[in-house]
Amino acid sequence: MTLPQRVRLVEMAPRDGLQNEPGEVVATAIKIELIERLARAGLSHIEATSFVSPKWVPQMGDAREVMAGLQRAPNVTYSALTPNLKGLENALEARVSEVAVFAAASEAFSQKNINCSIEESLARFEPVMERAFDARVRVRGYVSCVLGCPYEGEIAPRQVARVAKALYEMGCFEVSLGDTIGVGTPLAARRMIDEVARVVPVEHLAAHFHDTYGMAIANL
Known about the structure:
The protein is an alpha/beta fold and 220 residues long. The chain is built from nine helices and six strands; from the N terminus they run H-H-E-H-E-H-E-H-H-E-H-E-H-E-H. The chain has two domains: 9-87, no CATH class; 97-220, Aldolase class I (TIM Barrel), CATH 3.20.20.70. It is 40% helix and 16% strand. It has a six-stranded parallel beta sheet. Strand 4, helix 7 and strand 5 form a beta-alpha-beta unit. The longest helix has 17 residues, at 118-134.
């Protein structure tokens, strides 16, 4: 196997990790310290927060305060998830370096998670993309449930490819393929990425594997 000479790590813990913490909301100061330590550790791309309604994601209710309190390191990209136009506007005011939008490869997951179809979710991103381009802020696209869904089970690679292609053609500079529930295997991951790479150049793809069953490294 030929391994790449260089890889790019995008650290998700301050957003994807902390948003799932149950119980008491993690203090803003602790979030800021975590992000600053990650930067000092040498990570150059950190997803710091998410500009969503605190009603739905209480752990991310202090997004503005987190971004305002950061001592930003040079040459570090601090990004945020922005699922809608209001979230994007708030992120731009907070001077984020980059933003992200997300869609699902599973119709059932899309309905359960954001209360709309895949097509409707993609349509919602069009004004977000336009505004981000106007502000000269890059947009990363996420596709969830690429190897399995808690409601639908196995997801066909061609379905993942369809959603990834839509995000790429919409203007996302990179599309991250996420194994949301961590059920993937190396063979399934290879088949999925081979299918997606037919419609999105592989240099514009990223992978996001959860270690639910201890397979994340093997999948990568």
